[in-house]
């Protein structure tokens, strides 16, 4: 009975993680394109900040410029800019949490 339970739980755990890696994952060496990871994280967090109406001014243009740089073949510059855009998006999400408790303190 333990073997059946262990196998069932293992299969369940593996199937829930099946979609964890993006489509750009290279199964030969286990690497993922860093630009794809950085730009998708930046876009995801930026969309959350836009939904809360607390997105920072330059984040959207940074994401667009990073995509243009990547298309132009400047992968390292595009990846660095995408990481900076992601950092701005994360900071804007942190600002949302701080804004919830804003007000005078007496």
In short:
By secondary structure, the chain is mainly α. The protein has helices at residues 2-16, 34-51, 59-71, 75-100. It starts with a helix and ends in a 6-residue tail after the last helix.
Describe the structure.
This protein is an all-alpha fold and 106 residues long. The chain has a domain at 40-101. Helices cover 68% and strands 0% of the residues. Helix 2 runs parallel beside helix 4 (75-100). The mean pLDDT is 82.
**Gross morphology:** flat
**How much β-strand is present in the residues?**
under 5%
The number of helical runs is 4
Structural class: mainly alpha
What is the terminal-to-terminal distance?
63 Å
SSE diagram, text form:
Elements: H1 2-16, H2 34-51, H3 59-71, H4 75-100
Helix pairs in contact: 2-3, 2-4, 3-4
Short key terms for the protein model shown above:
106 residues, 4 helices, 0% strand, mainly alpha
């Amino acid at each position: 009975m333990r073997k059946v339970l262990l196998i069932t739980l293992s299969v369940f755990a593996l199937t829930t993680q099946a979609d964890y890696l993006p489509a750009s994952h290279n199964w030969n060496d286990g690497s993922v394109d860093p630009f794809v990871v950085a730009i998708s994280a930046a876009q995801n967090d930026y969309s959350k900040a836009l939904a809360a109406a607390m997105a920072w001014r330059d984040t959207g243009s940074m994401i667009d410029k990073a995509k243009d740089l990547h298309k132009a073949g400047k992968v390292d510059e595009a990846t660095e800019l995408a990481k900076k855009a992601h950092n701005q998006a994360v900071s804007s999400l942190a600002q949302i949490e701080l804004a919830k408790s804003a007000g005078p303190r007496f």
